[in-house]
Amino acid sequence: MSDFEIPAGLTDILQDFTVEVLRAKPSDLIQFACDYFNRINEARSSKAVFEKKGVSFGGGEESGDEPMQTDDSDEEPMEPPRNRFQRRQSVSAERYDPEADDDDDEVKVVHPKSDDQRQRLNEAVRNILLFKSLDTEQMTEVIDAMFEKKATPNEKVIIQGDDGDNFYVIDSGTYDIYVVVDGKDKCVGSYDNTGSFGELALMYNMPRAATIVATSEGSLWAMDRLTFRRIVLKNAYTKRKMYETLLESVPMLQQLDPYERMNVADALMSRKYEDGQQIIKQGDSADVMYFVEDGEVRITAKKSMWQGRESDDDPEVEVSRCNKGAYFGELALLTHKPRAASVYAVGVTKCAVLDVNAFERLLGNCKDIMQRNEDYYEAELATVFGSKTNISDLR
């Protein structure tokens, strides 16, 4: 994949889905998405929806200007801005090629900040999902590139249908979200002193999916379009390619098709551990599994816990080691029992971490293989400690 060329019709589908999310504000976004696209798929069998929109998944072009409707009679039809498709042509013309993009040729954007501003910005971006996978250097670049924008009551920060210019993180203030319904603006949600908005137009070359109006005085941190795409999109692309390569070397995942491996790669988060740092503690509850991204880990266990008792004085004994491409911590997620061993970094080590929710959602096809590994782990511990105890009892 050499660039982010958007398939015909994708921007329409994503924008319609985004508007429905903003209207419905579902508590379970994944289930909502499944139900929404199932309705679309059912409607496609009669071709009514896609003939109405003029969307072709075979490489055709958009020809209609009517929005996609869902089959729920309780839902109001959505109407896009009148200039929606004209604007989309100008936005879609811009293509971003992360492989061709050369950071050395880019002039890094730096907006000077006071110590107080930098502290407030660090606090504001701490829980922004888009930045979770950035390393320290990239986060510093994000902080440097963002600039402060004051908001006044009734100010329209972004307008539905406009081209995207900035991504915004809320520092303070309240903001209402409006979408056009039957030709009228309808409030579908709000932000209260926290959150972020504006990323969809920048990520998917889409017009703005909603209007954001400040309802009080406030402060926003903004990042321009080009800097956002260079830092966030290039990092996402690089991260995906790196993790896809890592996952291809894991025998357990060979039965996953490329698309499934790509989804696992997108769900992974990198964690760095110093020499000797404990990654897993025997007896703790489990919430993630690990793939060794770089470096080595050693796995240890206490004989007393192996024999079904606990002793603080019992020394830990090394059971095995894992190198790049190996994985560990998966059986505790399968059995929902405490960790059966401790794990420590050997030298500086990086691990790709998959949380339990993504584990359940993405690795269902591999669970039988992972479950069979239980006998192997049990044999490893029995070899070290002599007497054999059911390892399941330790989890």
Explain how this protein is built:
There is one protein chain. Helix 8 packs across helix 9. The C terminus is likely disordered. Strands 9, 10, 11, 12, 13 and 14 form a 6-stranded antiparallel beta sheet that branches. The protein has a 4-stranded antiparallel beta sheet with strand order 1-8-3-6. The chain is of the alpha+beta class and 395 residues long. It is 36% helix and 23% strand.
Overall number of domains: 2
CATH architecture of the largest domain: Sandwich
Low-confidence stretches: 45-93, 388-395
| CATH topology value of the largest domain | Jelly Rolls
Draw up the topology in text.
Layout: H1 10-24, H2 29-44, H3 48-53, H4 84-92, H5 115-125, H6 136-145, E1 147-151, E2 156-158, E3 166-172, E4 174-181, E5 184-192, E6 196-197, H7 199-203, E7 211-214, E8 218-224, H8 225-248, H9 258-267, E9 269-273, E10 278-280, E11 288-302, H10 303-306, E12 316-323, E13 327-328, H11 330-335, E14 342-355, H12 356-362, H13 367-385
Antiparallel strand pairs: 1-8, 2-7, 3-6, 3-8, 4-5, 4-7, 9-14, 10-14, 11-12, 11-13, 11-14
Helix pairs in contact: 8-9
Compact summary:
With 395 residues, the chain is α+β, with helices and mostly antiparallel strands. The protein has two domains: 222 residues, Jelly Rolls, CATH 2.60.120.10; 144 residues, Jelly Rolls (Sandwich). The chain has 13 helices and 14 strands.
